[in-house]
């Protein structure tokens, strides 16, 4: 399980190299909101690990604003539970077509959403 805090940079440590079939792969994160399956996000983030054969380190930024950079791991996610799928590719891309699925799991996003709910009377 991955725990992410809104409005901060989240250091995420994983062991993806053991599951990868490519040498020096690029990783793509595909997240689907568990409450709204149409709410999906696909982004890439650079592996910051000094020892990629032992672990993979990703700095995922939850911006909490309209600013996103899907090619650099800066995303805006609603609070709650998400399902993640991590794909590997031989090139940096924002398409999972032809990529290898290497891991799935859950993400919990903690923090306040900026949205104001509509109140009907």
Strand and helix map with partners:
Blueprint: E1 2-5, E2 8-14, E3 26-33, E4 40-44, E5 56-62, E6 74-75, E7 80-89, E8 100-110
Task: Compose a concise summary of this entry.
This protein has strands at 2-5, 8-14, 26-33, 40-44, 56-62, 74-75, 80-89, 100-110.
Largest sheet: 5 strands, mixed
Instruction: Give the fraction of residues assigned to helices.
Output: under 10%
Shape: elongated
What is the H/E order?
EEEEEEEE
**Structural class determined from secondary elements:** mainly beta
* SS summary, helix count: 0
Mind explaining what this structure looks like?
This protein has strands spanning 2-5, 8-14, 26-33, 40-44, 56-62, 74-75, 80-89, 100-110. The chain is elongated, with a radius of gyration of 15 Å. The strands form 2 sheets. A 5-stranded mixed sheet has the order 1-8-7-3-4, with no helix packed on it. A 3-stranded mixed sheet has the order 2-5-6, with no helix packed on it. It contains no helices and 8 strands. The protein starts with a strand and ends in an 11-residue tail after the last strand. With 121 residues, it is an all-beta fold.
Summary keywords:
three-stranded mixed sheet; 121 residues; elongated; five-stranded mixed sheet; mainly beta; 0% helix
């Amino acid at each position: 399980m991955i725990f992410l805090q809104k409005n901060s940079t989240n250091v995420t440590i994983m062991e993806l190299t053991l599951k990868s079939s490519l040498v020096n792969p690029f990783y793509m994160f595909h997240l689907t909101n568990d409450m709204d399956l149409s709410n999906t996000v696909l982004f890439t983030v650079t592996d910051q690990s000094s020892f990629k054969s032992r672990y993979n380190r990703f700095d995922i930024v939850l911006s909490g604003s309209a600013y996103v950079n899907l090619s650099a791991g800066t995303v805006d996610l609603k609070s709650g539970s998400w399902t993640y799928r991590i794909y590997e590719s031989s090139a940096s891309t924002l398409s999972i077509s032809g990529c290898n699925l290497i891991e799935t799991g859950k993400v919990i996003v903690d923090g306040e959403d900026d949205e104001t709910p509509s109140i009907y009377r």
